[in-house]
Each structure stands twice: as structure tokens, then as C-alpha cells.
Amino acid sequence: MTSKHSAIITCAITGSIHTPSMSPYLPISEEQIIEQAVAAAEAGAAILHLHVRNPDTGEPSSDPELFERVAKTVSARTDAILSITTGGSAKMSVEERLKGPTRIGPELCSLNLGTMNFALHPMADKPREWKHDWEKPFLMSTKGGFFKNTFNDMEQIIKDLGDRHGTRFEFEAYDVGHLYSLAHLTERGMVTGKVFVQFVMGILGGIGADHTSLVLMKETATRLFGDNIEWSVLPGGKAQMPLCTMAAIMGGNIRVGLEDNLWLGPGQLAKNNAEQVEKITRILSELNIPIASPAEARRRLCLRGSK
């Protein structure tokens, strides 16, 4: 099997979806995020997708100094690619969301491909003891709110990071229409070269996490971009391992991590991000699907390398 068939594994370490009360293993502090990121890279993740949080409350943070410290320390301890979020959380403005990435100027950043209902409120209905006062209102606010990323916002992100820093993007498509938005950006020359698209599946407000939707996303992306694409799948919740396995068999790449799913299996919380990376690498090993190294991922995604 040639190297082009190997699977690039991304691990999303903490995100802004889950709250501290949902799992004692969700990394919150600077040290926890760093240690779990390094362990995930050692387990086989070529890309580490990074958010940061307020270490006292666990709230999503846009603190550029915190981003910079985390990124520098992780980069010093591993050669994994860092993909810094430009999504932050739905409560942040675009300017807030860009504070960390523009401070770092990374080789890769995520970029959400549209404004959408990003509904987390069903998580607030589950009985649990809340550790912090902000958690339940934060989740409930998504019932009447939305995540804003207009074409103006996307163009601003591309200019501030792509044009000024040479950053390339992990384009996050939450539905089929987002693929057409990306095609529009390429037709206008805003996005050039090979595109790296992450199919985000299972967020309420976006496409569902099921096999027919994955096939639809893949076929649509192939029709729009041909061979000029690296695609990956990010299934939320219990669909994570089955759809990641399916994607790898189909010739795609995969994303795991506690941002997307807190569980390792039914009734079993993942104790860290590395456990999920280790599980999917075991599955792919049994299927004789190689795992891409950071060097191979950089080559295939046309990245400039870390500064």
C-alpha cells in the first residue's frame, strides 16, 4: 500500500463544546492541555487541534498569551502539526477568535465554512452536578443563538492568517452547502492549492453522523474539487469510531479527541485524548491502513512547516 493511502490522524484536545462537569478527564489547565496534546502525538496523531480554556473556570478562552505558551511548549516537545482554532466559541467575536492564531502565525488553522445553528442545548437537559455557574447557561444559550462566520468573516480570516503568515486551513464543513461555499472561495482565488476539508458530522444544526451522509459529503467534495483535496471526517459522539473507520477505508483521513467525543466506548469515559488515538490506530492497524507521520502530513497538505 502506497503512502498516499495512509490516514492522517488529527486529535482535537479540548475544544469549546464540552464543559468541565461532563468529564473529569477533559483537559482544562495549560499543563493538562499540553500533556494530553503531547501524549496524543506520541500515540500517532500527526495534527493537534488546539483550543485553550480559562484555567479557573474551564470556559473557552481567546487569551493570546495562553495560546502562545501552549503552542510553543507543545511544538518544543513534538513535531506534530498544530492546527489552531479560529472558531473559538460561538460567544466570541471574529476579532476575539483571531487573537491567538494571529499571535502565533501557525502553519495550519481551522476555518468554519459558514454561519449556522450550533446547538448544544440538549446537553443541558441531562442530569448532572454542575461545577461552575457558567456551564448550563452557556449550553442553553445555543438554543437561541448561532455561530457566525459570514463570507466577510472567512475572507478576513484568510487574509489575516493566510496572506500575512502563510497559514493554510483545515476547512470545517458542517453540511453539504459548506462545500459549495469553499468552492466559491476557490473560484474567486481566495483559496489556492490543495484544500484540506474536515467533514464535521453530528452537531445539531449540521449534517448527521451516519454512513449515508459521509458518502454524500465525500462524493460532493470529490465532484467539486477532484484530486485537489485531502478530506477527513470528524464524527461527534458515539459515531466517532465507526465513521472514522469507514472514512479510512474509503481513503480519507480522521479526527478524534475529547473535543468531539468524551467516550472511549459505551459507558466508558476516555481518560485522555491518547486513548482515543490509540484505539483508532489499533483498528486501522488491523485493517492494514498505515498512519501518516507529521512529515508526510505536511507534504500532503502543502504546509510550510513550523516557524
Automatic annotation (TrEMBL):
InterPro entries for this protein: Aldolase_TIM, BKACE
Keyword Zinc: yes
Keyword field: Metal-binding, Transferase, Zinc
Cofactors that this protein relies on: Zn(2+)
Keyword Metal-binding: yes
Domain of life from the UniProt record: Bacteria
UniProt cross-references to PANTHER family, sorted A to Z: 3-KETO-5-AMINOHEXANOATE CLEAVAGE ENZYME (PTHR37418:SF2), 3-KETO-5-AMINOHEXANOATE CLEAVAGE ENZYME-RELATED (PTHR37418)
Protein known as: 3-keto-5-aminohexanoate cleavage protein
